[in-house]
Amino acid sequence: MSKTFYLTTPLYYVNDVPHVGHTYTTVIADAIVRYRRMCGDDVSFLTGTDEHGLKIERSARQQGIEPQELVDTYAGKFRSTWERLGLNFDEFIRTTQKRHYRAVAKLFRAVKKSGSVYLGQYQGNYCVSCEAYVAEGRNCPDCGRLTEFMTEDSYFFKLSAFQEKLLRFYRDNPDFVVPRARMNEVVRFVEGGLQDLSISRTSFRWGIPVPGDEKHIFYVWFDALTGYISGMGYGADDEKFEKWWPVDVHLIGKDILRFHAVYWPAFLMAAGLAPPKRILSHGWWTIEGEKMSKSKGNFVTADELSNVVRTDYFRYFLLREIPLGSDGNFSFDGLRTRVNSDLVNDLGNLAQRTLKMIRSYFGGVIPEAGESDEKGRELRKSCDETARLYQDRLGDLQINKAMEAVWELIGRVNKYLVVNEPWVLAKDPSRRTQLGSVLYHAAEALRVIAVMLGPIVPGGAAAVLRQLGIRRPLEDHRIPSMEWAGLESGSSIGRLSHIYPRLDKKEFRVKVKNRRAAGAASKKTSAAKAGGRDDARIDIKEFAKVRMQVARIVSAESIPKSTRLLKLKVDLGSEVRQVVAGIAGQYSPESLPGRLVVIVTNLKPAKLMGVESNGMIVAASDGGKPVLATFTEEVRLGSVLT
Ligand code: MSP
To answer: Which of 373, 399, 499, 591 is at 20 to 30 A from 25, Cα to Cα?
Structure first.
């Protein structure tokens, strides 16, 4: 019976389209999964989307749509992007699916039954963007944004009771987290003591209600982590769940390690379920040397990536450029250089010249292997050793090291051709057997290389096999049973063509520039369609409908229970009005009286947290942070902005 292998990516937040970071995680997962399949394992690859939480709820409200509509759009985008890029997942779990709701409720009941849950009160600074309370300080240590102070009733998970159990588990499974340095970080964190964990919220509605106390909504991490089991039958299909759980590898970025290596095993232990077998924590990509961010304009989406280069090219670059676990810098220039040197020159040229010589000297028929001479035996030994090394490294999830080994072999085969000079042998009819043997050895090594590259660059690997005349589909090759002499003498090679076209520096730069510009334009159009701020142009009459006037803030006070809103009285010269503004995170009430501001004065009145607002204060949104519009010169109160 074949071995089962279950691997997951994180469930992606649906507040944006897939970008290069998400693509990286999913490409690593896809490569590992393809490798396992080519080892003959029974594999399941789960990915999906994390769709609940305050941030989604707010984002939907801002756009004037229901949260469900928002998450449907983005979840669809993730799913279709992975499908288009050939990233072959088996399960796509969405945290808004019914099967997921059932599983979360079941896990909670099991955890509660074990005595690991109690009702308490939570107070703290909460980062809306990262959906997490912040241990200390006003700014989020992860994203740097200003946090909001919140107090709420909450169910707590007794994480503190799991310290010893977790430490014992880490001791018994020292490879639980790879790379090792990250395992050590986790151990140190747990040794430092664990605080109980708030697992429910009453401050927002967009989420899964706690069974039996529905005003509580599950904390997004309790909800999202459960996706790894809800997608595999937990709470619905015991046989399926038994088959796949515990998971073999959770693949995650280093930013979400604690949730996976501390909280998640503790939840599972409390519920009497086995913890994950392994967590692979990868590093982060910066773009052209900087953290990727929309405001910096260095945000690279999966669409842009795949529009600019073929899938093999970015798969290769992402997997080869950095060792798993390290951070790396993404640049289109770096991608082009790597692709040209490794795929086009090293691999492409080896395939091209070997196959061309078989076509020219043997009419496209694979020659006899003959007796291996010393150099031939060495090459064969190299192939066997590389295949072993490659399997050891991939088994250990070191993809980039496995690729290094394959590239060393490519180098050796290229050298083998140079040393044996088949083009010289071809001139001497008495050395035809030797010529045949040299080309057979090179072509056979090429076959072994192509099979090993199957999980990494499936497009090119399949093309090499086809051109070698091998009809069996790439996926049907079995890596562990790959033996020398798999190539059949006397068989015909396929039609030859370049495996990988070169990326010309100038042309490529233009293409990147154009695609990026096209991407930005289409983003604007879709924002316009969705009624976003980057709307299509309007005429002056439409603009004139909005009346904006100069006002001075007379007083400002907090609104009970709200961490975001302030109640302001503003003087418009002819009248004093009350407006409610969502600026409490950035402006203290004492700092506001006397400030000149701009008020939209012809909006219909609205009630916010039960307080009437008769107008809207104008502010720029700087990465989500409001900055009030003002005047630096004297101006009469009530003046209209035109
Ligand atoms: N929703 C949570 C995960 C819940 S899993 C139960 C989440 N989502 S995320 O969309 O923000 O991130 C998903 C993955 O993308 C993470 O593993 C994260 O590390 C990865 N990346 C996001 N940006 C990245 C880079 N710039 N570089 C590499 N990976 C990065 O976290």
So the answer is: 499
User: In the CATH scheme, what is the code of domain 330-482?
Assistant: 1.10.730.10
Cis ω on the peptide bond leading into residue 593 (within 30° of 0)? no
CA of 129 to the centre of ligand 1 (A): 13
**How large is the average pLDDT for residues 274-295?**
91
Ligand 1 atom nearest residue 256's Cα: 31
Centre of ligand 1 from the C-alpha of residue 556, in Å: 39
Distance 437 CA to ligand 1 centre (A): 50
**Contact call for residues 17 and 57 (beta carbons, < 8 A):** no
Tokens of 301: 């989406």
Q: Is residue 520 very low, low, confident or very high in pLDDT (cuts 50, 70, 90)? A: low
Question: Among residues 598, 586, 613, which one has the least CA distance to residue 552?
Answer: 598
- Whose tokens are 């939209």? That residue is 600
**Does the domain at residues 541-628 carry the CATH identifier 3.40.50.1820?**
no
Q: Which residues contact 430 (CB under 8 A, 6 or more apart)?
A: none
**Alpha-carbon span 264 to 282, nearest angstrom:** 18
pLDDT of residue 164: 98
What number of CA atoms fall less than 13 Å from residue 577's CA on the CB side?
26
Tokens 């676990």 found at: 325
**Can you give the residue ranges of every domain in the chain?**
4-291, 330-482, 505-536, 541-628
Provide the pLDDT for residue 337.
97
Mean pLDDT calculated for residue range 284-291? 89
Q: What is the token pair recorded at 339?
A: 């692709």
Which has the closest alpha carbon to 136: 154, 124, 122, 152?
Answer: 124
Q: What's the pLDDT at 131?
A: 67
Name the residue with the closest Cα to ligand 1, atom 25.
Answer: 21
13 lines ligand 1 (CB under 6 A): yes
- Assign 632 to helix, strand or coil: coil
225 lines ligand 1 (CB under 6 A): yes
Which homologous superfamily is 4-291 in? HUPs (3.40.50.620)
Q: What is the pTM of this model?
A: 0.80
Query: Which tens digit of pLDDT belongs to each residue from 426-457?
Result: 999 999 999 999 999 999 999 999 999 999 99
Taking the centre of ligand 1 as the mean of its atom positions, its distance from the CA of residue 8, in whole angstroms, is 13
Ligand 1 centroid to 550 CA: how many Å? Answer: 43
Question: Does the beta carbon of 18 lie inside 6 Å of ligand 1?
Answer: no
User: For the chain, what's the residue count?
Assistant: 642
pLDDT at 508 (0 to 100)? 92
- Are 207 and 223 in contact, with CB atoms under 8 Å apart? yes
